[in-house]
Design brief:
Elements lengths: L2 E7 L5 H9 L8 E6 L14 E3 L14 H25 L2 E6 L2 H10 L6 E6 L3 H5 L4 H15 L4 E4 L2 H10 L8 E3 L21 E5 L8 H14 L4 E5 L5 H10 L6 E5 L4 H7 L2 E4 L8 H8 L4 E4 L4 H6 L6 E3 L4 H13 L1 H17 L2 H15 L1
Parallel strand pairs: 1-2, 1-4, 2-3, 4-5, 5-6, 6-7, 8-9, 8-11, 9-10, 11-12, 12-13
Helix pairs in contact: 2-3, 3-5, 7-12, 10-13
């Protein structure tokens, strides 16, 4: 075997795990894949059929105060050295090495090592880094931005998960080469069902799947459900996922007295069972690179109501063509759109059919084929 594809990344759960799960299917007799993670997976079962290794020690210091910078730097140097020897060993065995990075931390390490070792570097962009860095301290944010501009311009190819994100990334990181940037949509991990969903005459279930982090804005979904329940008291809202906002969301649910109508399930391995049993899918991110769970829900024929956040949701839905878009944080508009689906059998079935049609466009075969082309060009 002449070619080895190595993936280095810090894991954040959610869409990144799904991508790595799908991506491993590129593995062939002539194209081997191995994952290296700088922190352990949250859901280890996703990687049970893949080859991976955790590069220790784990980086646990997320505080941005300047007093912690030396500690961060020590961890970074440790990972830099360990990654160097990993790549050096593989370079002895393989004629060609292609390395994929999926976060800024691993990208910075690999960009520095490109000065010492010959390998092709691909950077996958799945989030709006400008929005992401706004959550960090101002000094740390500026430092990371400067380092990232250097690192991302060291990459041979920069692949974003949506067209809008690709344009934003090119501008934010001052990428001069147009041929270096492209975008590849994510693919559906589940098989698309053949028939549209049946209209729910009673006990409809509204579903959210994903991380419970601030940028996902679960508060908008919960608030919208409050107005839905006023007119449809038989409704339920199911929240599948976990994250930093779990406690805050739980308190909001108690404060508005919806404990009986809203169920929080945490992380679940059998998420497809929730898609099968639900009737409408809701998503309310402030910003989103793509929105893996939106097309997952669509593959089960669920009509979707999502916020028109930059960048993925709008590209998936295409101006209400394949689902219902609402402004970011507009919980009243979201509740109205949910009720419009529940009050009209024709509208519900129409958008169920549109979901299935759109899900077929985002096939995993198409995604993998486009990624294969990127690596073949580099090889």
């Amino acid at each position: 075997m002449e070619t080895k594809l190595l993936i280095f990344s810090k894991l954040s759960g959610g869409g990144l795990d799904r991508f790595f799960q799908l991506f491993y299917q590129l593995k062939t007799e002539n194209f081997d894949i191995f994952y290296f993670f700088y922190n352990p997976p949250i859901r280890k079962e996703i990687y049970k059929n893949t080859k991976y290794r955790i590069i220790k020690p784990n980086l646990r210091y997320e505080n941005d105060f300047i007093i912690f910078w030396p500690i961060k730097f020590i961890f970074f140097i440790n990972h830099l050295i360990r990654t160097f020897f990993i790549l050096k060993n593989y370079k002895k065995k393989y004629k060609k090495i292609v390395v994929l990075s999926a976060d800024l931390y691993s990208l910075a390490i690999l960009a520095l090592l490109k000065n010492l070792l010959p390998f092709s570097l691909v950077f996958r962009v799945m989030v709006d880094f400008e929005e992401l860095l706004l959550k960090r301290g101002i000094l740390f944010r500026k430092l990371i931005h400067l380092v990232s501009i250097y690192a991302i311009n060291k990459a041979d190819k920069v692949v974003s998960v949506s067209k809008g994100l690709s344009i934003k990334t090119k501008n934010f990181f001052k990428i001069n080469s147009t041929s270096k940037t492209t975008f590849i949509y994510n693919g559906v991990i589940f098989n698309v069902i053949k028939k549209p969903r049946l209209y729910p005459k009673q006990n409809p279930v509204i579903l959210y799947v994903g991380r419970l982090d601030k940028e996902k804005d679960l508060q908008t979904i919960v608030k919208s459900f409050y107005f839905v329940i006023i007119k449809r008291s038989d409704c339920q809202l199911w929240i599948v996922g976990d994250g930093s906002e779990r406690e805050k969301i739980s308190k909001l649910i108690k404060n508005i007295g919806l404990q009986k109508n809203i169920k929080m399930f945490g992380w679940k391995n059998n998420v497809e069972e929730f898609y099968k049993r639900a009737h409408i899918f809701c998503f309310a991110s402030f910003y989103e690179g793509f929105g893996f769970v939106i097309i997952e829900a669509m593959s089960f024929g669920l009509p979707v109501v999502v916020t028109n956040s930059p960048f993925g949701p709008g590209e998936i839905i295409e101006d209400n063509k394949y689902g219902l878009l609402v402004p970011v944080q507009d919980y009243k508009k979201m509740s109205n759109e949910i009720l419009s689906l529940l009050s009209s059998k024709e509208k519900y079935i129409y958008y169920s059919k549109r979901s299935l049609k759109r899900a077929k466009f985002f096939s995993k075969e198409k995604m993998l084929s486009e990624w294969k082309k990127v690596f073949q060009e580099l090889i």
